[in-house]
Amino acid sequence: MKTLRSQGWLASAPPEFRDAVLARSDVMTYRNGETVYNAGDPPGAIYGILDGALELHLHRIDASNSLAFISGPGAWHGDLASTLGRTRMLTVTTRGPCQLLRLRRDELVRICAEQPCGWREIARLLATNMATTFEVVGLLRIQDIAERVARALLLLAQPERGAPRVVRASQADIATIIQVSRSAVAARLAEFEARGYLTRGYGTIVLSEPAALEGMFGQGESAELP
């Protein structure tokens, strides 16, 4: 449980609330490519990532183009449906072997009834995930491709116990998420690597100079998207 105590939403929650969530959750183990829940499923639980990664897919979008985001350890999902009691809006699948912590909706409601800070903490989780959603949507409005790629890298980057920041996504994944061609993403990544901003590996990208990528925001000129 060290991951969820030190990263993401629970890390900054009051100790009594954090302990209650961890104590009343159960660990779920998945293989690569398994479905955690589908769009349209009833609200059943919220899930925290202990190890591995989750893919978030848009509903009613062609499977080859449905990937919207990739989350790593410390992230929590399922909060919107579980809070509102509505059906799921996204399909969530595993990327590689994955361990999740599952907190059932009835336990979530019970904890919030017992803990004075409960609903405030759930509101904070909702706000955190909503902010990420707005950032992902905002990526699609950026006309400069280099800036779009840079922002996507920073948004997808997962800290590895402090540093360095690692993006566990392929060029094709990034291209799908930000809706540009794979060749355009490859060209920008090659440029960033030549400048020493990052190092590309097999399915991973290590950000050597995150501040340099942030410095690109608003600096590029508009370009037609391929």
In short:
Helices cover 40% and strands 24% of the residues. It is of the alpha+beta class and 226 residues long. The radius of gyration is 18 Å and the shape is globular.
Give an account of the 3D structure.
This protein has 226 residues and is α+β, with helices and mostly antiparallel strands. The chain has helices at residues 2-6, 15-23, 79-84, 105-114, 118-139, 145-156, 171-178, 182-194, 210-214, and strands spanning 26-30, 35-37, 45-58, 67-71, 76-77, 90-104, 158-159, 165-167, 198-200, 205-207. Strand 3 (45-58) and strand 4 form a beta hairpin. The longest helix has 22 residues, at 118-139. The protein is globular.
Q: Beta fraction of the residues?
A: 15-25%
Q: How would you sum up the major sheet?
A: 6 strands, antiparallel
Helix content: 25-40%
Overall, the morphology is globular
Find the count of extended strands (DSSP E, 2+ residues). 10
Instruction: Compute the separation of the termini in Å.
Output: 43 Å
Elements, N to C (H/E): HHEEEEEHEHHHEEHHEEH
SS field, number of helical segments:
9
Structural class: alpha+beta
Overall mean pLDDT stands at: 92
CA radius of gyration is 18 Å
Poorly predicted residue ranges: 221-226
